[in-house]
Amino acid sequence: MAQSVERSFTVAGSIDEALAARLQGAVVLAGGTWLLRDPLRGVELPEAVVAVHRIPSLSEVIVEADRIVIGAGVTHEALGKALRGIAGFEAVVCAAESAANPGIRRVATIGGNLCSIDFPAADLAPALLACGAAVELETTSGPKRIDIPSLLNDRPGLLDQSILTKILLRRDLIASAHIRLPLRKAGDYPVAIVSLALDQDRRCRIAVGSVEPVARRWTVLEQAFAAEPGGFPRVPERAEALASEHNDFDGRDGTEADGWYRRQVLPVLIKRGVAALLESEGLA
Amino acid sequence: MTVTFRLNGEDYRFRDDPMTPLIDILRQERFLTGTKAVCREGFCGACTVHVDGDAVPSCLKPVGLLEGCEVVTIEGLSAGNQVLHPLQAAFEAADAVQCGMCFPGMVMSLLAFMRDNPDASRDDIKAAMVGNICRCTGYERIVDTVADCLAQQRQTAKVAGGADV
Ligand SMILES: Cc1cc2nc3c(=O)[nH]c(=O)nc-3n(C[C@H](O)[C@H](O)[C@H](O)COP(=O)(O)OP(=O)(O)OC[C@H]3O[C@@H](n4cnc5c(N)ncnc54)[C@H](O)[C@@H]3O)c2cc1C
Ligand code: FES
Ligand code: FES
After folding, report:
1. What is the extent of the structural domain holding A117?
2. Architecture of domain B2-163
3. In this predicted model, what pLDDT tens digit does every residue of A129-167 receive, in sequence order?
4. CA distance B18 to A49
5. ipTM score
6. What CATH number does residue A105 fall under?
7. B36 touches chain A (CB under 8 A)
8. Judging by DSSP bridges, how do beta strands A61-63 and A27-29 pair with one another?
């Protein structure tokens, strides 16, 4: 049993209340599936915590004609259910429905997944990078909208003075795919993740997670794809060859796999991803 | 801080650190030791309980998030001196249980799954068990038992609905 501790614990009823507590040093608590494991990692739980689970707008998914707005407190399970069947967002649905295990997915939020700074294997990070998502932060000077690479690359700086409130997706995609490679069939962290999304102009965005410490776009491969006839490789093996030729990743060593292995598997994951995109409706 | 919630149908008030994982309260304060603490990090599922009807790991649930919630543990399904819950009885009848360490969590996960997925296939059942690790059984008898219970459940619903009459 935890020792009796004088911990400040605020249950915020509004975003303003949550931000005020954050500015005073409280750590945001969403589902708690990452934070509660701090003691196992040798890190003490924070002295001040602000829980955001009672803020109604954070658990909403709003699907509009031209965009989708996802509250940062939406769970993986709820996200998968809300976006299932909406063309273009297959990668986000697959990421939400295959990360972790069912019990964790019922609790873990999209905000927690993106804001766990020390977690390189977040499934939603590459999926949202490929889908070109933007995010909204609540700051002292009001809402601030930035693209997802800016969030992922500067989380310590940004989240020190703000909280993540929304994830925004434009509905200009025709198909996307999320290919993950765990060591077992399911239930453990993926060794490498590749997400691809194709927009209405047949431009392909490609993102990679879990290989380097922070997920990122694979821009040299995107350019190589764009140089193909029709702006996209129509044969998965051709995509695999291009991925081998343009592999500029520096894999991280970790308990599940060595860095060289994470890097090595990327071309095969690209092949599977392109095959999945080609199979999607509207691409034949 | 004080947190009040329902635990197996009764009011329960907790006064201490709101970041205490629910599992520690269940086992150490309430002596509800059916819920097992094995990995304490969300991988094994042995600590699964129902919170507002959802099967979730209690090792990663800070009690501060439970104000007003309804928590049910394995003991809430059937006290030791009562008839077992039908799913527990089915596992026993099928000789599916070996050491038993995983079973309280297995039952809590699968019960919620069966309620929400009456038409589940074998693959669906296996997918629902991804977060419940069993080191003894090889899983097949568990899957067989759940598939049989679902088939029985569907048959009962059909008869009750008069579809075959
Ligand atoms: C067993 C297990 C397996 C897992 N497997 C996978 C996997 O395969 N793929 C995968 O992607 N993930 C996996 N995860 C990680 C999981 O996705 C994260 O634990 C989860 O998404 C964190 O969300 P949470 O709501 O529980 O966050 P919390 O634990 O509450 O918070 C996590 C961090 O984010 C911060 N935070 C949360 N919300 C906000 C916000 N709105 N604004 C600012 N900061 C915020 C918190 O302060 C904290 O630092 C796994 C986790 C477990 C326990
Ligand atoms: S003890 Fe909670 S999941 Fe293993
Ligand atoms: S019966 Fe022993 S772990 Fe499942």
Report:
1. 56-279
2. Roll (3.10)
3. 999 999 999 999 999 999 999 999 999 999 999 999 999
4. 9
5. 0.95
6. 3.30.465.10
7. no
8. unpaired
